[in-house]
Amino acid sequence: MANSTDFLGGLAQAPDNSSLVLKSYFWLQQNASIWSILFTSFVALCIYDQISYIIKKGSIVGPKFKIWPIMGPFLESMNPKFEEYKAKWASGPLSCVSVFHKFVVIASTKELARKTLNSPMFVKPCVVDVAIKILRPTNWVFMDGKDHVDYRRSLNPLFSRKALSVYLPPMAEVQNEYLERCVKQSENGSTTYMHLFREFMCAISLRTFCGTYITESQVKVISDNYFKITEAMELVNFPIILPFTKPWYGKQMADMTMEIFEKCAQMAKDNMAAGKEVTCTMDAWCKLMVDTKQREAEIGVAAAKADKKSYVREFTNKEISETVFTFLFASQDATSSACTWLFQIIADRPEVMRKIREEQLRLRNNDCTVEADLDLIDKMDYTHMVVKEALRYRPPVTMVPYVVKKPYPVTPDYTVPKGSMVIPTLWPALHDPEVYENPDEFIPERWLPGSPANQAQSNWLVFGTGPHVCIGQNYVMMNLISLMGKACMLYDWEHTITEKSEDIRVFATIFPDDDCILKFSKREHPEVL
Ligand code: HEM
């Protein structure tokens, strides 16, 4: 076994002009076994990792050192407990944790969360490490600065009021179909509904985005298997995509979905070129491209380009498929979470269900067959307040991971090091007792016009803020308000309350820990309150 005398001896044999590192290397080569080299390297790595952590942590809240060398609290984070997240957020405005090589800073106050979301000079979205591989590095959501702003400008019309009014009728058809499936699933009594709601929301998204270009069987395969993508994106996952791991299955599923989307994009292009009607998001996008081409022919390329508001460049099928995939990705877990909580919350509060029913019948003059259009949805004030309160009470997105591009002075006393992850946290702002009295109670009336909740715009972080604020937020409200209005008017459902119903399980977003046990039935006389 090598000892310190051998070490000096080894150094003596090294060339005179060699550095200490080289001398050490020569000594190791001559004296150390492979095991002692590995052991020494591991110890050196652990020491480096600990020192690096302590320096990066600086003055903010977090473990004094990494109890588990290198990997940190990786194992605990595999099955995150919501109460542990809450404890972390309460531990200080800024707190930290280090998992493997990744140093993570959590920004918990409204001010620090808003500041981070509005600091594109210093940070950019990173979702989770494997997301770049699954969504592909070329995906627009990873664009930064002007490139991102320009790209997003082309997408904004896809969520305009005009576009939403096109999406509403097919959305209503899927809602009708799945509400009937909810009843069918209850034929043998109460069951868990979280999985069906996930499938439901996926089917709505696919129909809205791809219209009838996507077949029923493709919708089924994607909605049945989408959870594999969610699993791959867990906050903490193995950083490399190894075969047969969750990220690997997720990537297979994402690639297959994007392949389907590419084909749909071509069909949409063909239909729009042939002057057919816009029926879905892909159509709406391709129509903008056709219109731009027409304007170019009429007034010339330069003049068409100068009108930045209406100019939309030609996008490839691959770009369209990757972008529409981000819509599905951004929508799927968050909307499923909101939908699940809404059904549970309303079932537990018969008075809320009754008030929604009353509003729906009144606005339709007691004609339950009337399908809502956007103008009718605008008038659903109470249903709107219920949906808004559910999004506040159980915000689907509780954290938005960003990566630090250059040292980010988040406070006068602390700068987040380059390369770290910084996670603005939305829950505390949405449960701020100064703005939302009794924040852990579900009170739709807190959203009445002129109320403190309505005035505190800066606390409303459900959809984020800044350059990456949710592009689909109006679409989300349209979907959830029309769905809950219709469900309350036409159906009854009961919730089996278990001791886990109010416990929150983190699965990308948040869900009731018992998967929401319900029993649906169709109302025989929906026109009667
Ligand atoms: C209840 C449902 C939803 C919630 C709570 C939600 C919330 C959010 C949040 C918190 C962000 C990050 C904002 C930021 O970084 O400041 C975001 C981004 C985004 N959301 Fe949503 N979202 C929902 C549904 C949707 C839907 C249905 C779509 C598409 C149709 C969508 C598309 C997007 C996109 C594309 C981004 C990234 C925007 C960008 O980087 O410029 N989301 N969403």
**What are the bound molecules?**
protoporphyrin IX containing FE
Total DSSP E strands? 12
Instruction: Return the domain count.
Output: 1
| Shape, per Cα inertia axes | globular
Please identify the structural class as seen in this structure.
alpha+beta
Strand order of the largest sheet: 1-2-8-5-3
Number of helices: 22
Strand content: 5-15%
InterPro entries: Cyt_P450, Cyt_P450_CS, Cyt_P450_E_grp-I, Cyt_P450_sf
Family: Belongs to the cytochrome P450 family.
Protein name: C-22 sterol desaturase ERG5
Organism: Geotrichum candidum (Oospora lactis)
Features:
five-stranded mixed β-sheet, 529 residues, 22 helices, Cytochrome p450, three-stranded antiparallel β-sheet, alpha+beta, binds protoporphyrin IX containing FE
Report on the architecture of this protein:
- With 529 residues, the protein is of the alpha+beta class.
- The protein has 22 helices and 12 strands.
- The radius of gyration is 27 Å and the shape is globular.
- The termini are far apart.
